[in-house]
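Quick log. Single chain, no ligands specified.
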Amino acid sequence: MRIRLAVIGFFTIFFSHTLLVGAASSLSIFDEIQGSSVSRPLPPEYVIDLDGSVTLRICFNWSCARRQTLTFTLNDMARLKRHLARCPGTGLHDRLQRIRIGIWQMEVLAQQSQPLLANDLAINDFEADIDGRMDCIDNASNTTTYLHILQDLRELPGWTVASPKVRRLFDITTVHWTAVITDTATGRPWSVDSWYRPNGHLPMVMPLSSWIDKKKGWEPPFKRLNTTPRSIDALCRPGARTHWDIVNGHVLY
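-> predicted structure:
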């Protein structure tokens, strides 16, 4: 049990929460905020309630121009945890896949509540003026919120959520943000970038140093980390694992 301060909309509440959750799916929007665009990801806003549900703020329509507060129920969170439980390994490969599964499932839950998110496409191509579109600021904001929730639920062993990072900040055509998570064993930060795929898909992961160097998650040496199989089992079963080490930010198979 832990105590946390969270802000939802215009009110602030202190709360303590247990880590018990339970199984199924129904989400409800109880607040909607039309905000002005921002130039950097928004800080997480969420509450993990005593009943096991999670109330959180998401944003979309590029640079968090539209913001909504959603609720993931006890049953929603139980289903999420069942998916994560299918990837129980303690090695780096499985822990990275667990992150990917968690973000994917959180995005699926958000889309069930706000169907406009199904309009989001990979990158920003062909999205102008489409409701539900998400740029890198939207994605880094939402992914960071999802990661904090998973961390508070103790579903990300061996990881600590860090602040989003940016590359090419002063180049308006190539500036890009990513969510970041740090391996507690090595202190190495990793990028968790959901912008390269539509909402409701597995994000890309790679060492932050490689992300800053504009390496591509769908190319070697990171292609094996960022597969998109038809089942979770294909991500984490023993036969899907690869043995590799990291030297100077590069993955060696």
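Confidence is low (pLDDT under 50) at residues 1-30, 239-253.
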